[in-house]
Predict the structure.
Amino acid sequence: MPTPRVAVFAVFLFNGALFLSWAARMPVVAAQVGATEATLGLALFGASVGLASTAPFAARICARVGARKLILGGAVVTVLGVPALTLAETPFQLGLILFVLGSCGASLDVGMNVAAVAVTRSLNRPLMPQFHAGFSVGGLVGSLGAAAAAGVGWNLTRHLVFVAVIGAVVMAWVIRSVPNTTADSTGENADRAKDDRPVLKRPLLWLLAMITLFSAIAEGAAADWSALFFVNERGVSEAGAAAAYAGFSIAMAAARLVGEPAQRRVGPYRLLAAGAVVAAAGLALAVLVVSPAAGYVGFALVGLGLAFAFPVIMDLAGDAGRRADGTGGEREIGLVTTVAYTGFLLGPPLVGGIAHAANLSISLGFVAVVIALMVPAVLLARRSRARELRRPEAGSTRP
């Protein structure tokens, strides 16, 4: 059986691979249901609504049953839901299936982050960036697999059934090694966190959520608008434009793989602030220097700088909810995840609206400012955490 660290990494890999497997075949799915750009956009909105609406409930369920059962439930429905995309005949049916897949994605996200926090606690190592690298690598594998399936002439059904079967086999192999994160109900402080105030009344958690919100807006902008920016504003071909987001993704995955030594050396808050500076400078470079080469470098810097935002914030949120018995953090991670999903939901139309009123350069310049706002939010979060640790009822003062 795999170790808990390998098992949780495999869950991240599974989530990224299955997500990008169907997302990369979306043009075929759209043709299958006869969707226009407008109706396809509404169908895809179903996935975003599923993500954002399910995350807070997933956090509560995770606190009750543990990360392992939550991941198992999300994985089972996912491996059934991905092939079900081939059954959709209308954009409305597609939207319903995507809503289910989005809900499963939220369950997997909350569960795998809680499980990852449990592994980092047991090993006393800042491994969250490496776990999130698993999602990035899984996404790369899923998208390359989709391209290969299309290249050899596999139809959509054959491809997605194959992906689902492989995913089911992987999850069956690793699920028993995923940590059981439920509290020990026999312990005197099993359900008492270091700071037992409701999550909605803790400024620290709102600051951490704000950082993920800004990061999500930036990631969504890179994913949805980078290709159009290079085609319309820099005059490159569609193939050249696609290379920009590939550089963004590769830089993010590579940075996450070496995230542990980086976090050990500079600490989580300095790493977040430095990453925000790098990402904001990179996007400013891409927007202000009228050169495709500068644009490629700029978007790679954005991926590099944002690489640590989600994993480090999840680590900090989990630690903020740690109970005396070493468990906890489910609701804190759920709150941060929910707010982050609103960034993915609101970011694309916000950027598109500014681009429609002005142009994409100004719109992406606005995103660079949003990234820069992460820096003061990080500094305030560090001060807020220090104040929490000084509270008499806060218990342990683990930095």
Summary: Confidence is low (pLDDT under 50) at residues 184-192, 393-399. The domain at 190-399 is CATH 1.20.1250.20 (Growth Hormone; Chain: A;). The longest helix spans residues 91-123. The chain has two domains: 1-181, 190-399.
